[in-house]
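hiii, so i know i said id send this last week but things got crazy w the move. better late than never?? heres the sequnce for the chain we talked about at the cafe, plus the structure i predicted for it. fair warning i was half asleep when i ran it
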Amino acid sequence: MNSNREIKKKLMSVLSLLVFCFDAGFAQQQHKGALRGQLVDELGGVITATTVTLVDSAGAEVTTTTDERGAFSFENLPASKYSVKVNAPGFAPLEKSDVVIETGARASLEIKLRATIGKQQVTVGANSEGLSTDTHTNKMGLVLKGKDLDALPDDPDDLAATLQVLAGASAGPNGGQVFVDGFAASGRPPQKSAIREIQINQNPFAAEHDKIGFGRVEIFTKPGSGQLHGGALVGFNDESLDARNPFASSRAPFQARTYAGTLTGPLFKDKLSYFLNGYRREIDDNALINATVVDSNFNIKPFSQSLLTPRRFTDLSGRFDYALNKKNTLVARYNYSSSHLNDVGVGQFSLASRGYDVSNSDRVLQLTETAVVSSRVVNETRFQYAQSRINQTDGDSQPAIVVLDSFTGGGPQVGLSFNNTDRWEAQNYTTAIWKNHTVKAGLRLRGIRITDVSQANFGGTYTFAGGRAPALDADGRLVLDSSGRPVLVDISSAERYRRTLLLQSRGLDSDAIRTLGGGAALLSIAGGIPRASVSQIDLGVFAQDDWKVAANFTMSLGLRYEAQTNIGHNTNFSPRLAFAWSPTPGGAGPTRTVIRGGFGVFYERFSESLTLQSNRFDGATQKQFIVADPRLLGSFPNVPAIEALEPFVVAGTIWRVADGLRSPYTIQSAISVERQLPFNITGAATYINSTGFHYLRTRNINPPIPGSDGSFQAASRPIAGLGNVFEYESDGKFRQHLLSITTTGRLNKRYTVFASYVLGKTDGDTDGVGTFPANGSDLNAEYGRSATDIRHRGFLGGLISLPWEFSVNPLVIISSGAPFNITTGRDSNGDTLFTERPAFAGGQASTEAKVTRLGAFDLSPAPGERIIPRNFGNGPSGYTVNVRLAKTFSLRSLTGSAAKPAAQKPGGQASPGTSDRSYKLTASVFVFNLLNRTNRGAPIGNLSSPFFGLSTSLASSALGIPGAGNSASNRRIDLQLQLNF
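okay and structure toks below
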């Protein structure tokens, strides 16, 4: 007993000593000052990786380096007068004297450099002076600038897919988010030639952002230059350079032609500059069809075809930077993009008759005004207006035919449809520095209006499914057992369709055809008023304080509130908390280790497209009929008039938003350790835990109840007088664990590297609003693997500078397989949804069992029998190696002298009489999927399909393998020639 007391006394003594030491050290630090600042050019563009020198009154110097946002800081400074010196390549040298640091105060300083020749060299990776405890410098993130951007593809679609991979796994079923100059991006990202910097996963718990920080990509465009510069690019690809798509029987024709150009310079010296960018891409692509069809002789056979699908893209953008005065800067950016796509909707199971044309045009105007209110306060006002116009047309009015996971034929059922979307967004943010606090607060207000005219499925769609049916002999007659009863067998959806055509050709009526195992399972058709519209406004307000508690410890506290007009529940408060701590006390040398942690609540917006759907199919505006009555299905291939459907159905399908629907939200926490490693490499290990609540799903809340004979022909419904009621609900949940290992660094002048590996596990009971449960009355059976549960992801990229101005940019991407759902391919419960999952077959052979390489499955589970988990199947893994090899030729300058860097005076000023404009010609080869790896897409999960368990196409970017090929090729080689001056 006494020994325990002695131990307690000793522990209390040690604790008191630690507290005293901390208080003493903290008090000592509090009696010293600090200097924080940012390095920018004349137009507000940040200048990174640049040394800043601080000189005290005795002449002693201390240096630091600006980080990815151009920021620098000096801590633990005695009260005195200092001078700040900056000498950045491409800028005139600058020295500020009489910088006063007061006791216990934190001074702020913005240093603006004047450009002279060229541009600063930008880098990726760690700061050679050590790490930082600033909230926005987490090393799990990635910053790409300058030549490191060359590792990314030029095609906007490939670029978007690659950025998705680099951002890693994002929490929730909705993925990450892309921002362009502070605005949420709509459509494709900007052209690579217009991008100054890409930041990925920076400051993930900032209250400024509504979406989850992990998985966030922020793109910053290039400002105008103080001198005239420009460039032109020509790219080419042809199928003769590529490897054949392994899913095609022959090499399909393919050609892509790219034309791009940039021009930047001043309009008024030191006042107004511009950056103009143009891009045109012409692609003669092919859609690859791999299906199972019924030929004219009523035989089921494989069918493969490559169909030319031309695509044309145009993108024009301009950015103007205007220095209104010494304290106010205005940035205006305008972007116009258009595309025209032919034969959209064709490929895999969809036959050529399903093709339709799509024309799209987008216009975006962005305005940003930055006001330096004082040396400690900066205000930023932003406004964006975005307009989108989409038109769809088809030339085939025949009803569509869906033979589940075998083929889809007939007309595309698009009609003459268009979508007009207008969005606006206003932001106002204020940042203030007060002593050890950096406070940022502001609001964002967004509005949208959509006018949509859709004739989708106005011609009707017949669906054929597999299931039980009587066996037929070679002549199409019933096979009877010893008791004279028909022998029942399991048939595919293609066999059901074949019997329908065969028996119709023999003149049998619809009842006889259905008796012999033919006939469609469903007829769906839409009618009524094709026009619908929706308007919505949402608001976000936040405040955040980054508190420098000590030189080696920063605390970030924030709160965000969000509301929107199209749902009733708007008590959406989002607290945010983060910290960064270094075991190295301030002034004890470079920071080599930083420990970060964070916690936050993140809300998802309820999309306006869902409100539009519920407005359209409200039971009056536009009716959607889904009919399973054999008397109507017997009219195949003709479609009855809408008026003829009324006597046979109670009501059309209704889509609606559930009463009390809430915004989905995720509670996310993370802890990470960052370490400065040898060879100027920074490593970070991060664990992320995410738990989601109120995630969206869709459920039929009014399914039919079978009659006394067990059939659905005389079924009743829980809500009398209504048919199917598809309701958006917010009762889904998920849980995610991620472990991320990231390294970045510049090994030396020739080698830059960035790499990441993510180990993850994600479970949940919904994969988003498009998820229907297998059984709407038993949601507990839905909890299982999420569709985003990819266990292993990784990438390795960088820059290798070789002699004679050769450079190599490799990018290696790996990913384990994504899960896929396994279904029976039958509508066993009459809810008109083919989402039923099988059960595991018992030990004894069953007539309903189907044996596959994934196991034996019972396609007709008994009531109460446990069905297989959601997303039970696992797709194939994959990897790709993309490489860019470039050679730069230095041409002659305007003066006729050899194009080498102009002679410079100290400080970067050009000598009189020499030209600072040289011409560089760069020839490059970009190889996608260098090793010609066949990365297979998600397997077919329909047990009634002849393709069950097989992949019928190459992987898409959803697996995380962008650049693995297209419909025409598996390995692709792009040739480029680029001239810059």
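btw The longest strand covers residues 300-323. thought thatd interest u
miss u guys!!
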